[in-house]
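Batch job 17 of 40 flagged for manual review because the log was empty.
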Amino acid sequence: MTNPDGNKSDKKIIAGVLGILLGALGIHKFVLGYTTEGLVMLLVTVLTCGFGGAVMGIIGLIEGIIYLTKTDEEFDATYVQNKKGWF
C-alpha cells in the first residue's frame, strides 16, 4: 500500500537533507522547483570563488532543518502550495 502523501514527504526529506549537506549549491531549491532561488545560491557560491558559499551553506543548513522539522501538512502548505522561496 502506498502513502497518498508519500511524494510530499519524500520531497520534504530530500530537500531537507540536500539543504543540510549541499546547501551552498542550492540543490534543495531546485528539488522544490525554486529555480530562481537555486540559481542565486549557486551563482553566489561559484562567482565568489566559494567565499559566499559559507553564507549560502549556513542558509541551506537552516532551511534544511526547517524543512525537516515541519509536519508534512505545514511543509506542503508553505513550500508547495504557497511557494515560499526563502526560509
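Reviewer: the log was empty due to a logging misconfiguration, but the result itself is present. The mean pLDDT is 91. Unflagging and moving on to job 18.
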